[in-house]
Amino acid sequence: MSNMDLAKITTYVSSKEQVQVALKSGADHLILEHSLISIRSFSNNWSDTKFKSLVLLIKESRKINPNIELSVNCDLILQNKDIPLIQQLLDILKQNNLNQIIIQDPGLIELINEYQPLINIIFAQETGNLNLLSLNHYNKQCTTQFLSNEITISSIKNAKKKLSGKLGIHVQGPIMIQYSYRRFLKHSPNETISQEETIFRLAQDQQYPNRFYRFYDNPHGHFMYLYFDRCLHHYCDTLFKLNLDYWICDARGDSISQLEAIIKHYKKQQNDYNNNPSQYKPSDSDFDRLSTIIKRPLRPGFFRVNKTDKIIDNKTKKTLPNFQYIGTVIDVIKEKWMTIEINTNLNKKTTLLIINPEGYQIELNNISFRSLTGTISNECSEGLCQIKWQKKIYPKSSIFLKI
């Protein structure tokens, strides 16, 4: 397989520095953002109503790489008042010979086709658009679809067989789980900000300590992100077989060093695969390097079918007659603690077998337990508690008691 056959490493940029770093790191496709039309952009150029900063991004990108693929992210939820702004944007894109735009509001398809019919439309919905009927509907109207974060491998395989258009997948970055047009944080106590200012907050889950959900509030509305980032590193071998057109890396709101690390990471996976496809396997050392830079927990999200742990439980009941299923790993803090949920009491003399969804097993003896408030003990009661972190064990891993 040649490099020409591999998915294009794609990322979001909203500043000149991000453009430079992304292209130097190996990005093949840049998604240009502007605060007025990109609802999760961190660019804060709200006063730039003529899109001058967007034009500068186009020029900077082409100065570094004249052949770079460029798109503009216009993922706002369209309201009638926004139509003149979108028409102005389309005029500017035409003037600068940029003919690709990303949307999530279906109403924009009709507007774009009426006003500038030659532009390529990429349809990107983070939720919904999960069935073949829906995918086929947008396939007829758009050149490309960025797949929902909730679509599974089996559905992607089916879509790849049935659809003629290009497909992209989110391989790395935050997962948005809630959006509202209302600015909830702007009107919270002690907040006195102007209409154009943004608010960014972290909130810890009281039931599951060390799960920090992120909240972002800007003039487009209120956004809530999951406590972990999506990371498909461990499934890169599967991704190559899917033969998709774009791998999307999202570092919006994070540092330049994180943007650089993510792009280089997935570019390395592609290079390693390209050098020896039959021997390629995602390496644990590459993942460890990435996780030390990103800091937040890294999970595949909904990429795998959610019944994976149940399937493993059924297998192990047949092959492990001396063990009894007692619970599940709920959360993991690397190199510190794992939160588990169990249906029986345990003590230090207990022997546990933990099996992750891929079948990796580890047996634990002489176990110390920790309460959610931090108290260390030689025993724990039915419910939630913590045990020491174990490599390759992550949420949805199954826990068995030796009997």
Q: How many domains make up the 3D coordinates?
A: 2
- For the largest sheet, list the strands in their spatial order: 1-2-3-4-5-6-7-11
Mean pLDDT: 89
Strand content: 25-35%
Computed Rg: 23 Å
Which keywords apply here?
403 residues; alpha/beta; TIM Barrel; Elongation Factor Tu (Ef-tu), domain 3; 2 domains; eight-stranded parallel β-barrel; six-stranded antiparallel beta sheet; 10 helices; 22 strands
Protein described:
By secondary structure, the protein is of the alpha/beta class. 28% of the residues lie in helices and 29% in strands. It has an eight-stranded parallel barrel, surrounded by five helices. It has a six-stranded antiparallel beta sheet with strand order 17-16-22-13-14-21, with helices on one face. 34% of the residues are buried.
Brief synopsis:
Helix content is 28%, strand content 29%. It is α/β, with parallel strands linked by helices and 403 residues long.
